[in-house]
Amino acid sequence: xxxxxxxxxxxxxxxxxxxxxxxxxxxxxxxxxxxxxxxxxxxxxxxxxxxxxxxxxxxxxxxxxxxxxxxxxxxxxxxxxxxxxxxxxxxxxxxxxxxxxxxxxxxxxxxxxxxxxxxxxxxxxxxxxxxxxxxxxxxxxxxxxxxxxxxxxxxxxxxxxxxxxxxxxxxxxxxxxxxxxxxxxxxxxxxxxxxxxxxxxxxxxxxxxxxxxxxxxxxxxxxxxxxxxxxxxxxxxxxxxxxxxxxxxxxxxxxxxxxxxxxxxxxxxxxxxxxxxxxxxxxxxxxxxxxxxxxxxxxxxxxxxxxxxxxxxxxxxxxxxxxxxxxxxxxxxxxxxxxxxxxxxxxxxxxxxxxxxxxxxxxxxxxxxxxxxxxxxxxxxxxxxxxxxxxxxxxxxxxxxxxxx
Length: 405
Prior knowledge:
By secondary structure, the protein is of the alpha/beta class. It has 2 domains: 221 residues, Glycogen Phosphorylase B (Rossmann fold); 160 residues, Rossmann fold (3-Layer(aba) Sandwich), CATH 3.40.50. Helix 14 links the parallel strand 12 and strand 13. Helix 3 crosses helix 5, helix 5 packs across helix 6 and helix 10 crosses helix 15. The protein is elongated and about 70 Å long. The mean pLDDT is 96.
């Protein structure tokens, strides 16, 4: 192992750059600032055209190795070369992938596809002389890459999908195979413990995410806005609870409160949400902003009076950290790792998931109490500065990598 091999890391991610995963970009840039030599491989191409990326993202895009944009014939040819050069190892990897799938034909096909991608990643790492791969949202590809090459593997487990379906995500197999597993919350670490033998627990570390509090700065406080702007930022999918938010918001409008809801993001539920807004007579009170870049999202934070994210399942959402850093009082759900970020009544308000009446009441409480909004906002920013500062937490992750290396 060379003298600086512990600072040379391959980052394997699902999509880079990605508008919903800007925290990965920030993490990589901060690790590089700390002296790490990070090489990025992304399974998919960026989620936007080159001209829609920021200059920073464009630079990352040019330096990133992409797996899927390679033609299928090229991926197949590379896998054939790997088979003929190391037939026993390759055949054992196929058997392993099929064994994990069991009798599920669909899972078997997916696993063979992941194995094909893993071969591309392993070959790229060999050519780049990289031996340590760290993964975000790509752990199955990484699991198979370990079967094809002598690599050291670490992963950040975000949840909640892996914890909701541990068998489908091969969680136990990954815990056994990976050398280091980071979670973004104590809750996440508890779930890894739940699905593993105590002999594996020394591999688990909490590596919290974070935001830059010098970038997300307090926005002007509005004592008596009219209308009050309520902001949601996230994927328009059932797991984020947007239908619950619309229902709760409808109750506020029925009460005659001057409110405006902005939904930033897009996703499979957008059409249904738009129909729900129309059916409830809320079209004048709800704005669908669609996906926006980070600069525009910060502008929307600046004009928001309340932030609400009524998720049904989460890791710890970075958007909550962003809103908190800007002193926006947050109303969110009492689930998974969120109470580690927001202490109810101290840094924000927590409600039970799925309860639109409770959500509406919590938002109404903020509408009626300017002092509470101000107090929660200031405490929220202090919470982020103390425990969810990007630089501090990236530094802790760097320490974990150095110890691991």
